[in-house]
Structure formats: structure tokens, C-alpha cells
Specification:
555 residues; alpha/beta; 12-stranded mixed β-sheet; 4-stranded mixed β-sheet; 20% strand
């Protein structure tokens, strides 16, 4: 059996100019990064301004488990299948972060015969967007520390600095550091730390900005610190946003690549859904809607995180209205939610499936609350039995969701034709899209709406530290700002050990911060971390390259 990277390396790629031509993009509207990758120019945006939008389909999933769900694989396969049906379709995805690629999760370009290519490039440096975001964030930090070193005209309190340096790598050693040691010439000693690049506000801003001018304004509005007399200090106060924008002038342009069968895919931006808003860029999604009759996009982790943020943050701020939702699950993951160990998931177990399927039921219920038609896609594994699949299908029908098997990993487009037909039908159904909460509410009211309606919590409690932070944030809060909850992806609750459909729990808020440039408030719950660490045996251990430059072990 071929590995993902072996399948990718055996695929004959089409020149990216030919992929672009399929959706009406000329060579002059491409900025080439070799033969198989290109950025999409500002001229293309201007040309498509008056073109009507296609239909928007979001792919999301149940809570992730060690058994695997395959959301990106299904997203890619669905796009391939819809094109095979003659539906002009463009896929819009996030770029992978290097941290998880070398950590526990691996790459984020799909799998099997449902991949986005060139997968090695995409999963590693791609077109340099992540590095540009890292550089822009760290330039801001360097300018802030330099301002303090050079006399501190703004009276910045070094104990109330809010921005941290970032790195696109899992490196727990850098979570908490002391900087500026070595004498006066080396800066002012202070506590500092690193977050992963995809958790930075610069990443969130890039993914929400509508233009370069909007990007520069948002960057200038980043709250970076407070002064000794309690006044907020913004990036524009130290004149950092212009230079930051210069570093991001190419990174703001979406990237065009292709799937195994040559379906166009736009990949741009990569915020995590458990510690950020988890969606690809607004510009990429809007471009895909103009280029195709259908845009297939995804949001990170389970629907309680990525999909909720897609609907309540991205759609709200960008004026998007989705036409259908695809909810991905696997029989294996549902049995894991029912208490079956990972080592025993290949064995039929209807009792565990009946218990664990409550997790799927909650996600179906949640998606229906947004008023959008739902199709459940079961990403099929070889070990799935007919009895198990029939049970899931009947459960979905009983819960008001359509159902389809997805065999795109093994069969590519051919394994997603039934799913594609059902998704097309779903987009023709009435869609009464609405948010879980409306503008005009307080931060606490918005959070409670998410906690009770989406997570199933009985309430929300704030730690003393969080109460103090909330009071500070409320001074800058505008009532049209959405809420971005940083929460474990493994459970509907804030406790990763509570699988299935937990009830009677409360959400504990540990901190509150404002992403003033991005335009939302971040609520930290549980023990969520913004700099992941590597596992005991990281994926990096298996990655190698031969004398000819051929990479192996990447997945």
C-alpha cells in the first residue's frame, strides 16, 4: 500500500497556469512560485468584483480523536467529485503550520487519492506566508522593546506587555523566558515568551483583512501594552504597522495549487481553531466564490470550534452566507467516543457505537441551529461493517441530516460522487442562516450563548484573574465584536477527558484578551496553550531526504 507522499510523488502535476485557465485566470494574473504554485494578483480581484458569487459549502467534523476523522481529505475529495460531476468547483483551505507537521498531527494537505499538491511544498515552506507572518509579528516585538530601550517615551509598563514573539514550530521550551539579560546594552530584562505563529494576532488579521489598506489599519490597532498610567498602547503608536505591512504585502495574496486530479485549490492563512478562529483567509474564500459555482471550504477541528467561529466570526465580519454544511465523522471515532480503546477500533462494536454516536448527534444539532442544511459524511475505513454503517445512516436520518459514505481516500473523486450529489441538493434547499448570538450583547452574554447552545454547558465561571482581565478588556470592547473561544478540541467541554456528549459541566474562563486589530475578544478556557510541544516520538523522527532531494516520511 502506497503512503500519502508516495501517491503524491507519483502524480503528474499540471502546470499551474493550466489549472488557473480552467477557472478563467490568465497568466498575467498569476505570480509564479515555480511550475506548480502561484499567488493570485490584485488585478484578478479587481476583474472579478462584479461577478456573482457561487454557493458556499463548509466542511466541519465531530470532535477529533486519535482514530482520525479526515476532514481535509473529505473536503478535497468532495471538490474533486463535484468537478467530475461537471460542477465548476474551487476548494479553499488553510495552509499547514510547520509545528504540527513535525509534531503529532502531520501535514494538512489531505490523504490517499484526495490530496492537494505539491504536498511536500505545501507542508513545508510553501510560498513563505508563515515566515512573513512570523517576521512581521517579531518586528513588532523588536520595535516595542527598542522603544523601551531608547527612552520609553510612551511610558510603557514592562510588566503589562501583551504581545509575544512567535515561531512556526512546536517548542515548549520557549513558552516562558526571560529576555534582555546581559547588561544595559542588551535591553531591559523582563519576562517574555513565544506563541506558535498560527496563534498570533497577525495571522488572524491577515485572514480577516479585505485589502492591503485594511491590513495596515488592523495591524496598527493591535493592542501591544499599557503605560504606567494605565493607557492602552497600540502598534501604530510606535509606528510599526507600515513596516509590518511591507513584510506582508505578498503574504496577503492567496496561493493557487491543485488536487491530485487537477481541481483548483486556493490555500491561504492558517489560524488554529482551538486557539484562534480556525479558518482560511476571507480573501481566499471570496475569490473561490467568484471563480467557481461552488466553493468548498473547511474550518479546523470539530464544529464546536472551527464551524462556530466560521459562522460567528468569519461570516459575520465578511458578510458571507453559507448554503450547506458537511459534517465529517468516522465509525472508528464514534466508537472511541463510546469508550473503545484505539487498539480495538477495527472490531465491530455496536454497543460502543450507540453510546459514542451522541457526539455526532450534538454536532448535527449544533449545525442545525445556524439554519443551514446538514449532510453527514462518513469517511469510510476498511474495518467498518455494514451493520455499523447502517446504524449511523439511520441515526442521521432520525436526527434530520442527510447521509453519505465518503471513500475519497481510496478512490479519489469516484469515491465522493454520491456525497457530491447530496451536497448539491442540499445547497438548493432553503437556508435561513443565523448566528448563535447577535451584536449588542456583553462579552459574558455572548460567551454564555456559545457555552450553553454549542458546548451544552450549564454555565460559565471566571477565575479571579479572568475577572480582572475582563474588566480591562471591556474598556476597549465594542458590542459588535465577536467572541473567539480558546478551548480543547478533544471535547465539547473544556476538559479533554470528557468524551461523547457531556452534560452538567461549566466552562471555566482562565483569561480574557482583546485582539483589537483582528476585531474580536479571545476567551481562554481550561489549560489551553498557545505554544504546543512535541510528543515523545515526533513525526520529525520519520522524515528524511535522500541524495536526490526526494523527501520521505511526510504525511
Amino acid at each position: 500500500m502506497l503512503t500519502d507522499i508516495e501517491i503524491a510523488q507519483q502524480t503528474k502535476l499540471r502546470p499551474i497556469k493550466d489549472v488557473a485557465a480552467d477557472v478563467g485566470i490568465t497568466e498575467d494574473e498569476l505570480e509564479f512560485y515555480g511550475k506548480y504554485k502561484a499567488k493570485l494578483s490584485e488585478e484578478l480581484f479587481k476583474k472579478l468584483e462584479s461577478k456573482p458569487d457561487g454557493k458556499l459549502v463548509l466542511v466541519t467534523a465531530i470532535n477529533p480523536t486519535p482514530a482520525g476523522e479526515g476532514k481535509t481529505t473529505v473536503t478535497t475529495g468532495l471538490g474533486q467529485a463535484m468537478n467530475k460531476l461537471g460542477k465548476k468547483t474551487v476548494i479553499a483551505l488553510r495552509e499547514p503550520s510547520l509545528g504540527p507537521v513535525f509534531g503529532i498531527k502531520g501535514g494538512a494537505a489531505g490523504g490517499g487519492y484526495s490530496q492537494v499538491l505539491p504536498m511536500e511544498d505545501i507542508n513545508l515552506h510553501f510560498t513563505g506566508d508563515m515566515h512573513a507572518i512570523t517576521a512581521a509579528n517579531n518586528l513588532l516585538c523588536a520595535m516595542l522593546d527598542n522603544h523601551i530601550q531608547q527612552g520609553n517615551e510612551l511610558g510603557i509598563d514592562v510588566k503589562r506587555i501583551l504581545v509575544k514573539r512567535c515561531l512556526d514550530m512546536n517548542d515548549r521550551e520557549l513558552r516562558n523566558i526571560v529576555a534582555g539579560l546581559g547588561g544595559k546594552v542588551n535591553g531591559v530584562p523582563r519576562e517574555d515568551g513565544f506563541i506558535i505563529t498560527v496563534a498570533s494576532e497577525v495571522m488572524a488579521i491577515l485572514c480577516l483583512a479585505s485589502s492591503i489598506s485594511d491590513l495596515k489599519e488592523r495591524l496598527g490597532n493591535i493592542l501591544i501594552a499599557y503605560s504606567y498610567d494605565g493607557k492602552p498602547v497600540f502598534a501604530k503608536d510606535i509606528h510599526a504597522n507600515g513596516a509590518m505591512t511591507a513584510l506582508l504585502k505578498d503574504a496577503i495574496k492567496p496561493n493557487l495549487v491543485q488536487t491530485i486530479d487537477g481541481t483548483p485549490a486556493i490555500m491561504h492563512g492558517g489560524p488554529f481553531a482551538n486557539i484562534a478562529h480556525g479558518c482560511n483567509s476571507v480573501r481566499a474564500t471570496k475569490l473561490a466564490l467568484k471563480l467557481g459555482d461552488y466553493c468548498i471550504t473547511e474550518a479546523g477541528f470539530g464544529s464546536d470550534l472551527g464551524a462556530e467561529k466560521f459562522f460567528d466570526i468569519k461570516c459575520r465580519l465578511a458578510g458571507l452566507k453559507p448554503n450547506a454544511v458537511v459534517l465529517v465523522a468516522t465509525v472508528r471515532a464514534l466508537k472511541y467516543n463510546g469508550g473503545v480503546p484505539k487498539t480495538e477500533l477495527k472490531t465491530e462494536n455496536l454497543d460502543a457505537l450507540k453510546k459514542g454516536i451522541a457526539n455526532l448527534g450534538k454536532h448535527i444539532e449544533n449545525m442545525k441551529k445556524f439554519g443551514v442544511p446538514v449532510v453527514v459524511a462518513i469517511n469510510r475505513f476498511e474495518s467498518d461493517t455494514e451493520a455499523e454503517l447502517n446504524f449511523v445512516e439511520n441515526y442521521c436520518k432520525d436526527n434530520g441530516a442527510d447521509f453519505s459514505l465518503a471513500e475519497v481516500f481510496a478512490k479519489g473523486a469516484d469515491g465522493g460522487l454520491e456525497l457530491a450529489k447530496k451536497v448539491c441538493e442540499a445547497t438548493e434547499k432553503p437556508s435561513d442562516f443565523k448566528h448563535i448570538y447577535e451584536n449588542g450583547l456583553t462579552i459574558t452574554e455572548k460567551l454564555e450563548a456559545i457555552a450553553k447552545n454549542i458546548y451544552g454547558a450549564s454555565g460559565v465561571v471566571f477565575t479571579p484573574k479572568a475577572k480582572k482581565a475582563l474588566a480591562e478588556v471591556e474598556k476597549l470592547y465594542k458590542d459588535d465584536m465577536p467572541i473567539c473561544v480558546a478551548k480543547t478540541q478533544y471535547s465539547l467541554s473544556d476538559n479533554p477527558a470528557l468524551l461523547g456528549r457531556p452534560e452538567g459541566f461549566v466552562i471555566t474562563v482562565s483569561d480574557v484578551r482583546i485582539s483589537n486589530g483582528a476585531g474580536f475578544v479571545v476567551i481562554y478556557t481550561g489549560d489551553i496553550m498557545t505554544m504546543p510541544g512535541l510528543p515523545k516520538v515526533p513525526a520529525a523522527n520519520r522524515i528524511d531526504v535522500d541524495d536526490n532531494g526526494k523527501i520521505s516520511g511526510l504525511f
